[in-house]
Amino acid sequence: MAFRLKSVVCSAQGAWNIYILQPEWLDRKGVFTPGKPVLVEALTAGPGFRFSAGKKALQWVVNPFQVTVAGGPDQGAETGAGMAVLLKALPETPLRNVGFQLEFRGSESVKDQEAVPDLGLKSAPGEPVLSRGVSLVVGRGETRYHLRLTRDADAPGPTLDVTAFLKGDGLAARADEFLQNFGGQVEAVRDIAARHLSITLA
Questions:
Q1: pTM of the prediction?
Q2: Fewer CB within 10 Å of terminal CB in the chain, N or C?
């Protein structure tokens, strides 16, 4: 069986002015659909806030170091488009990287379970191996793909966590095409997973 996409997070790390990035300002920039209610919560771990617009809307988290936009498996393109609008509105923001984090889940099938090699790990008395996995980083052009395939002892199936990101000089100018091409990033991840990990992503 194929691993299925469960969640998507688009992120941009840099130096953000959280006093500008208010929901009302983002709404004026066209990030939200007009008329949707916005729920705002302060972050408890540090400066910043989180907000969402509507039941199935994207979940935004803003702090001075990073902005993230999270959505369900069918909202990947929306997360990238929302971040692209934000970067166009604030082109002078110093950026370190932009990217997508994808979570794929496997099933309880034997084929999916065997996708994660045992690596020769053995549990010692009183010290069971609770999680095992493999990770790799693949470069394609200016994009880096970090894949981590894990199997936890108490989970029904294995998990593949993927980060696809851009970094380097002139990032703001290159980010728009990357962010607007979520489908292309998923296709690249499918190909990398099949080539290097011998797993199929739905």
A1: 0.87
A2: C
